[in-house]
């Protein structure tokens, strides 16, 4: 294979592995909605995040998924990415974090990212956790 063919095969493998991890972390329903909403305009971005965020970073062996979720939650609080926070609270639960552990992440974030940001994070997470509880079998 020449370099372009090798890169293409590697990109395809990263995309496939990224899609597997993305589905495991975010859930099939979320990923199916994202894929269904992909347009020619957004396709390069969807490919980028699938290959690099999910296929390169989330697949690395150095950190487990719980730790990665803690880091993502903190980063989203720090940057005020509230639309993404709800999705990643769901992902954190899927990755094994309890509501108490998520609260601890936000308490830590309050010190380093600011109390108003943590306050907003607690509000979003409380809503998401209640939704999850309402949909889980009792």
TrEMBL record:
* Highest taxon of the lineage: Bacteria
Which terms does the record give in the GO molecular function aspect? peroxiredoxin activity
**Which positions fall inside the Carboxymuconolactone decarboxylase-like domain?**
45-126
Q: Which InterPro entries match?
A: 4CMD/NDH-1_regulator, AhpD-like, CMD-like, Decarb_PcaC
The cross-references to Gene3D superfamilies, in alphabetical order and at most eight, read: AhpD-like (1.20.1290.10)
Q: What is this protein called?
A: 4-carboxymuconolactone decarboxylase
What species is given as this protein's source?
Answer: Marinactinospora thermotolerans DSM 45154
């Amino acid at each position: 294979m020449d370099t372009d063919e090798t890169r293409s095969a590697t990109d395809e493998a990263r995309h496939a592995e990224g899609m597997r991890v993305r589905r495991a972390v975010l859930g099939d329903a979320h990923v199916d909605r994202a894929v269904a909403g992909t347009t020619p305009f957004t396709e390069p971005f969807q490919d980028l995040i699938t290959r690099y965020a999910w296929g390169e970073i989330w697949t690395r062996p150095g950190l487990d998924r719980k730790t990665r979720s803690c880091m993502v939650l903190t980063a989203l609080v720090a940057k005020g990415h509230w639309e993404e926070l709800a999705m990643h609270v769901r992902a954190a639960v899927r990755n094994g974090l309890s509501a108490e552990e998520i609260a601890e992440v936000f308490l830590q974030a309050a010190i380093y990212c600011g109390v108003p940001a943590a306050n907003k994070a607690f509000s979003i997470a409380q809503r998401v956790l209640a939704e999850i509880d309402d949909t889980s079998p009792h």
